[in-house]
Amino acid sequence: MPLITATETIALAYVTELDPTMIKSEVIQTAELKYVKPVLTAALYDDVVANPDDYAILITSYIKPCLAFFVKYAMLNQQLLETAQYTPGADPSLSPALVEISTAVLLPRDHRRDTMQEVLSIARSKQTLLQEYVITQNYPLYTAPASKRVSGFRIVSTNS
């Protein structure tokens, strides 16, 4: 089971209400494995998934906000191109205007790009906060990475 639901993702990362069924669990799971698991490292991630109650603060305050924005980032192009369900309220019949699919498709490329970059920037910021929190908590199952990237180059520690 993913560490965040579609409803929680919408509440944390979206301004506009969406139908939670628009956010597929496969997208959430993929974002979790791609962006959260490497930060936690495999052993800690597996323990968090198996024992979420033991990590309530970690999950609620750090993982969910991070994951919500990475899910939004992963879904944004699809949502802009596939849906006409962006409404100002939960009941589309009360909305004076729905965004038509043709309007979403005609969104200028620069606006889409800028929106994607902004969402990614927020997600990476949340990921940094998650990583800093994990490091300061000294979780016994956390393993610090043996290498890091500097200016695109992987730097490996030679201290053995």
Can you tell me about this structure?
The protein is mostly helical. It has helices at 6-13, 25-40, 42-50, 56-82, 101-105, 109-137; strands at 147-150, 153-156. A two-stranded antiparallel ribbon has the order 1-2. Helix 2 packs across helix 4 (56-82).
Helix content: 55-70%
Continuous helix count: 6
Shape field: globular
What gap, in angstroms, lies between the N and C termini? 38 Å
| Main sheet strand line-up | 1-2
Tell me about the biggest sheet?
Answer: 2 strands, antiparallel
Overall mean pLDDT: 82
Poorly predicted ranges: 84-90, 99-105
Q: Briefly note the structural class of the backbone.
A: mainly alpha
Order of helices and strands: HHHHHHEE
In terms of DSSP E residues, the strand content is 5-15%
Based on DSSP secondary structure assignment, what is the total number of beta strands?
2
Rg computed from alpha carbons, rounded to a whole number of angstroms: 18 Å
Main attributes of the structure:
single chain; two-stranded antiparallel ribbon
Summary of the model, kept short:
Helix content is 59%, strand content 5%. The protein has six helices and two strands, in the order ααααααββ.
